[in-house]
Amino acid sequence: MIADEVGLSNRVLSCLNSAQIHLAESLSLLDKAAPDLSIGDVVRELNLLLSQHPVGLSPWIYLGYYELGKVVLQAGGNPHPPGGPPQPSPDQQVVEFHAANALALIQHGLTASRFNTEARNPQVIGFGDPAEASAQMWATLLAMLQEGGDFVVDICSPSSETIGQFEAAIRDARRLISLVNPALDTLMSRLQRLLLLAEPGPQARTAGQNFGGATAFFFRGGSVINASRQLHPTAMLELLVHEYAHGELFALGQEQVLCLNQDDERYPVLIRSDPRPMHGILHSLHVVSRVVGVIDKILQLSPAALPDGGASQPAFRDLLVRQHAYGRSSLAAIREHARLTPLGQEVVEAAVWRLGLQQAEPSYLQTAESL
């Protein structure tokens, strides 16, 4: 049962491990189907890495895998057809450029994975840092984040001073999470390996665009955090758990959708100013419930047990009230409009339990089997 902390941890870790195996198997099949891609060395290196350090891959590997899949689709299933012309056409040149970029991303991720196998705290860097990745890799990541139409038009890296301040605040928040929920802290060490600090860029600021954070299915293990926002301990803890929980639900739902609603079915919820698709509303419910679970544990501690002597408890109480309101709003939309799969039903029931709403009648849940 994913409402139980131990059960949820085991389920998430199982999903993460199986995804790594499936990724390696998929690349092996692609190597056999399209030998001209020359990914054999990458496949062998990935399998060796997983045999030696099966604790999590760099987000850059998943991004490269995603880009490689786009290349194959763009090329109609065969990025390098045998017997092609000696001089590739312009379209072929584009495909080959993107294929090379995808392989560079995977290779870069393999290198990063070897050097970050045992770290408990995430690596914290500025978005666009040339010491972390090439300009083309950063551009690929930004383009992927923008694909859904919900991300800002451009971003920039904060100052080195701001990065240092955020890194310290992130460590403090993780220490508090470890104190009240060691199981969650362990999962975050696996699924929140890389935190990229960014601020809205000039075009975004001109357009009045902003963001809190961003976590994507195909950048597993990494999140983007808005470094122009406040550093209050409660805000940092909420942001870290919030973004982690998105990644957690991506992992749980990697082989089954949460609902049968279409993306153009959008409904208003309190957590966002714009109507959201049901899949996003289910994410918001799960995320809020995970945040509430942590705050509940923090408020159960005596003030003396907290690093700040309890000074942040009033802010945590206020945050708890807001998160509960968000959760009830999302739950109401789900009750009225969701067509849930069995996994979606399980996610909702677990969130209801974390939010302390067990008295809510679960019979509203319309599962896929009943349609």
How many structural domains can be distinguished in the coordinates? 3
Helical proportion? 55-70%
Topology as H/E string? HHHHEHEHHEHEEHEEHHH
Task: Report how far the terminal alpha carbons are from each other.
Answer: 24 Å
Form type: globular
The overall strand count is 7
Range of strand content: 5-15%
Description of the molecule:
The chain is of the alpha/beta class and 371 residues long. It has helices at residues 5-33, 40-52, 59-74, 90-114, 135-146, 160-180, 182-191, 202-206, 233-252, 278-300, 313-337, 342-354; strands at residues 123-126, 155-156, 192-200, 213-214, 221-226, 266-267, 276-277. The protein has three domains: 1-118, no CATH class; 119-231, no CATH class; 256-371, no CATH class. The chain contains twelve helices and seven strands. The strands form two sheets. Strands 1, 2, 3, 4 and 5 form a five-stranded mixed sheet that branches. Helix 2 packs parallel to helix 4 (90-114), helix 6 (160-180) packs across helix 9 and helix 10 (278-300) packs antiparallel against helix 11. The two termini are 24 Å apart. The relative contact order is 0.09. The model is unreliable at 81-87 and 360-371 (pLDDT under 50).
